[in-house]
Amino acid sequence: MNRLFFQPHQAGLSKVQAAEYTLKNINPDVQFEVHNYNITTVDNFQHFMDRISNGGLEEGKPIDLVLSCVDNFEARMAINTACNELGQIWMESGVSENAVSGHIQLLIPGETACFACAPPLVVAANIDEKTLKREGVCAASLPTTMGVVAGILVQNVLKYLLNFGTVSYYLGYNAMQDFFPTMAMKPNPQCSDKNCRTQQEIYKKKEAAQPKQVVIEQEEEIVHEDNDWGIELVSEVSEEELQAASGPIPNLPEGITVAYTIPSKEENAAAEETVAESEESLEELMAKMKNI
Amino acid sequence: MAALASRREHGGRGDPAGGGGKEEYQALIKYVENNKSADNDWFRLESNKEGTRWFGKCWYIHDLLKYEFAIEFDIPVTYPSTAPEIAIPELDGKTAKMYRGGKICLTDHFKPLWARNVPKFGLAHLMALGLGPWLAVEIPDLIAKGLIEHKEK
Fold this sequence. Notes:
heterodimer; A: Rossmann fold; five-stranded mixed beta sheet; B: alpha+beta; Ubiquitin Conjugating Enzyme; three-stranded antiparallel beta sheet
């Protein structure tokens, strides 16, 4: 957070306070509620749970989504504990200690794996261990990696809240090779968090109660009620002309295509009309233009 | 490790250690008494009334000199799934990797060990397998670098 928000003149402020000031300057119409404390202590945790339950846009209503942007395992476990108990959907994000990988996750208590269902996931870093001065230790910080992860997190939030595109359950980022693995993980029936197991039961019952939705794809046949004049839709351009106008499409992997193609130059291209060579000088032509 | 008692008490939201820390005290007392018998008495710990905040001191002997450090930690709400984070405030910022307030870094070796033994591990294990090894590695290094001096000097 301090790599993305903090500015030198804010030295002395807590990270969340600096974040509020910076963001308020960008958009004064957003409401903020700032708390700076360790959520893993018993007292603060209670307050934290209370704000999830009552801190919605309308005070007293629960919030819509929790985004975890903390930097340690213990805090993530605390958030997980709270969300499992409250049935709160949340997204978790993180950047690795060596700053060259990151990830985001969507956690729906009972439906997806919770944070405690499996040991922490690691996006393979493919770093040559020989370059490390101390065995296994490569503490680094890159605001670029953090910027990328923050971007994909918020993108996922927009898709989730506004219902477009595919919301990723898990999206990783390997900065060394530019690899973005995705996946989804089911909950662990033997999860150590009792509330996770309870939520799993609730989810199973909910799924069983829903009617089976079969998706039938029907191709719509365009038929007009009457067509007295026998009107047909024919392309103005002939097949041959279409072929000649398109150029070769390069061999591309799935998901990438060209915006347009350029036709290949033919050997015996018909001579196109051009202006004849002229004896008149540039000044003469300019004067001619002026006198039209 | 075999000599340390496994936890059996289950804590609640407001009392993660369980029983206000009663079982923890029992395990710690046994461990400290064993240490004394083995002539390796290296720490003392006590807690607040609720058993949620612990503090004390630890000692490390290097080159026949005894170094003493004050230690403290909170019991996190997710205990014993997560281990408490021990802080040595007077050493804040002195080692290659330290967290704000002097919390020592135990990630690589200790945290996976703790995770694999949840919920059997308790404060005695935290001291024996977390703080103990950390002191053994870091204190000689800090002394060699001149970052800590014995109080008598």
